[in-house]
Amino acid sequence: MSSASSKTTAGEVLAVVVADHVRRIEQRVPPALSDEDDAVHRLRTAVRRLRTVLAVYRPVFDRDEVEALRGRLAEFGDVLGEVRDLEVRRADVAAVGSAARVPLEARDRLVAELDHQHDEAHRRLVEWCNGQEFADLTAELTRWVSSPPPGPKAHKSARKQVRRRLDKATRKVLKSAEAVDLEQMARSTGDELDELLPEAHRLRKAGRRLSQSTRAVTRKPAKVLGGSRREVGALGKALQSSLGDHRDAILLARYAAEVGASVASDGGDRAAYDRLARAATRRGQAHVAEAVAAVEALRRSSIAAR
């Protein structure tokens, strides 16, 4: 299905989308289990995109079936997330540490611990995929590809249903943005920052849903909408990425400070670790500024579309 006609139903389009996402998940499992470069990230992204499609376009499918599959995918995503978060932190130690001229000895100590944690997390991923949970998930995905369970909106016009669901996803992003003061978050640290992070997480998740649900219906194999919607989806992606990068920077800062405190308790010099923590904090603040810009652009785009 290269594009949808006015007579194409939502069920037909979303069945193609689901099948395409399942295919991508299946293709990405072996490289992830072999721990190939960036493979866990690609698999985790594929799993998240399918969960997003099921959430945003929920009325096209049977509600109970959607919740059951999303639950299984969430379990898989959690296992993948443990591995991926450690990969990101390891890369950030190298990037931020180099930019801040943190001594190589300190960087090596931070990475060595992360390598150990990563190996353990990847071992748990392999065990999970060799277990009954993954077998059940695979069987469920196969069933969805062969016979997606229809919901109350399955026989409605694809274009109308997709527009409505994306409009709702856009409104949810803007509503979530009203609940968190991003500019204050950029200035905050410690307990004050912790109070703001839950709302920022909800905003990041809303941005991801907008981005991924838009991507699913503006590209082959199930293109329903065109360019203007892609622009909105790109803003959702920018918001997701900037707040995700902020989260990663804050976690890096706290990890560096924690290791620094351990070094100091053993009589060592923690200065290099504190330098890395400060650099990571500054990096996180810059990412919040990017999120502010993305929200403003999305708000302008939403007003122009009325």
UniProtKB/TrEMBL annotation:
Annotated transmembrane regions: none
Gene3D superfamilies: CHAD domain
InterPro entries named in the record: CHAD_dom, CHAD_dom_sf
Ranges in coiled-coil conformation: none
Pfam families, alphabetized: CHAD (PF05235)
Domain CHAD span(s) in chain numbering: 7-297
This protein's name: CHAD domain-containing protein
